[in-house]
Amino acid sequence: MRGDFNSTVAGSAASESHMIMEGNITYVWSGTQGMKMDASAMASAQGSAQNNAPVDLDQTMGYECSNWTPDNTQFVAPSSVTFMDLSAMMKAQGDLNL
Questions:
Q1: Which among 17, 39, 40, 68 has the fewest CB atoms less than 10 Å away?
Q2: Residue 36, Cβ neighbours under 10 Å: how many?
Q3: CA separation (Å) from 5 to 8, 50, 79?
Q4: Number of CB atoms found within 10 A of residue 18's CB
């Protein structure tokens, strides 16, 4: 699965971010910096996380879809991005039981 996102906030420059799920690993990045995390670790972490600012699921959002010719290279994490491994960081801190 892949998602490419363009966000614009009033008074700020537009930002572009991306997400790929490759097996059990989720990669999220913007520019040349990103994060990666094992899906099982995310499930474990979600159980103990508190959400202080919920997303309004009823808010109207804009999106645009278009036809696309499949390109499998779009589903591989880019080598030009430096990914921090959040699973390893959390495990080292004792927050996850992997």
A1: 68
A2: 19
A3: 10, 25, 19
A4: 18
Nearest-angstrom CA–CA distance, 9 and 63? 15
Give residue 44's pLDDT: 59
CA distances from 75 to 20, 69, 81, 87 (A): 6, 13, 14, 21
CA 39, chain centre distance (Å): 11
9-66: pLDDT as tens digits: 888 888 999 999 988 999 999 999 999 998 876 665 555 555 556 677 788 878 888 8
Residue 87, classed as helix, strand or coil, is helix
In tens, the pLDDT along 85-96 reads: 988 887 777 755
From CA 83, how far away is CA 94, in angstroms rounded? 21
pTM score, whole prediction: 0.69
